[in-house]
């Protein structure tokens, strides 16, 4: 029986290449900005470490305090690294500073991304050794940008007392992006060329290495952002070549559905929407719809179901189905509004529909956070027919706003949307299963039929959707279970709530 000395808060260091409100390109930024705070509420001592990008707003840079500096060994070189710190709403954020690597106009997409994030991963390991306040029990890594940390820790830092009891968790937010580079990096940057085990695990091809593969092979626990995606990753269709590793390590792989920030996404208090409403009084949602139709130049008609789509315009999002089905949907008198940016051909296709269908279809090719709030509030249905979707936030946000999601049954969409069941009346949205445009259109028109003929049932479904709990509390408790599973010698500080 452990003594009371073992009852203490686990120290979690959350390593991420982006975190809201400092830098965001996708869901990872949202997770890194919200989950660590929820972990603190669940009884951990949590902090975040990320690069100090040039694009971080000046107001935050001005408030950062210098904590330490040292040199990071990258093969034959020693590279400068500063550590800065900023406390934001009770959570400590640490920033890895190297202007040559991170003072640029964007986050990713540079010729030396491999080197930049290899440096970042190694700087994190060095910081754990050299900066006492960064000592941790669990280093939680996310996606390929931090996937080398478990490799470095095990192969290069095992001897350091600050590292030998650090366990690693590796979370996959999207397996499409793996960080694959030429194998010269092993000797020129990583300093792992002479370590056969590391070479074996990192190689993915005759002459290339894969950061994500290294992380997946070395981490003590693997997680991904929904239970269904955890299952799908083990299949060749979704696994992007790494499915054998997920199958081999399935005993340590867990899927935990992300939460959303329910203080930001709340129709009762949202200052960005024209009229506030809640499950207790839905009346103002009609005003949100009216205002949205007006803003987007759509026909002012409350009886038209307004289908909204918000997200990146890429193949992942199942846009081929929407393009194929668009004419049929339009013929039935449904309105469609799309907000997004992405691949040029997709943007062009939706601009074409915008022209073709006048006041029944609107495509806003832009990234516009405020408009996204108005669309979540003003829509009737959120369409999300993704080919794959590790978790997906849009469908959860839509449910908070009483906008019923219509999704393909995959990944987090399957785990968050309960399909309408006409026998039991259960449901928080609508689902279809195959990548088939007719199946999607049939499901959509079936939903519109309810909208047209049974408003009472529609309202019931809206209320059921709005009542779903998507807060981070549940996810944070699940992560705490994993951390404590890796450190059975530490008694849990807070009981699971
Ligand atoms: P992914 O991470 O694959 O891009 P998610 O559904 O997980 O998709 O998260 C997308 C987030 O970004 C949502 O919060 C969505 O509202 C927001 N978003 C995506 N595109 C836009 C856009 N063009 N304008 C405003 N917000 C957007």
From TrEMBL:
A biological-process GO annotation: glycogen biosynthetic process
Example GO molecular function: alpha-1,4-glucan glucosyltransferase (ADP-glucose donor) activity
Keywords assigned: Glycogen biosynthesis, Glycosyltransferase, Transferase
Top-rank taxon, per record: Bacteria
Pathway assigned in UniProt: Glycan biosynthesis; glycogen biosynthesis
Ranges for domain Glycosyl transferase family: 301-444
Limits of the Starch synthase catalytic domain: 11-247
Enzyme Commission number(s) of this protein: 2.4.1.21
Chain sites annotated for binding ADP-alpha-D-glucose: 24
Annotated catalysed reactions: [(1->4)-alpha-D-glucosyl](n) + ADP-alpha-D-glucose = [(1->4)-alpha-D-glucosyl](n+1) + ADP + H(+)
Keyword Glycosyltransferase in annotation: yes
Short name of one Pfam family: Glycos_transf_1
PANTHER family: ALPHA AMYLASE DOMAIN-CONTAINING PROTEIN, GRANULE-BOUND STARCH SYNTHASE 1, CHLOROPLASTIC/AMYLOPLASTIC
Described purpose of this protein according to its UniProt entry: Synthesizes alpha-1,4-glucan chains using ADP-glucose.
Family per similarity comment: Belongs to the glycosyltransferase 1 family. Bacterial/plant glycogen synthase subfamily.
Protein name: Glycogen synthase
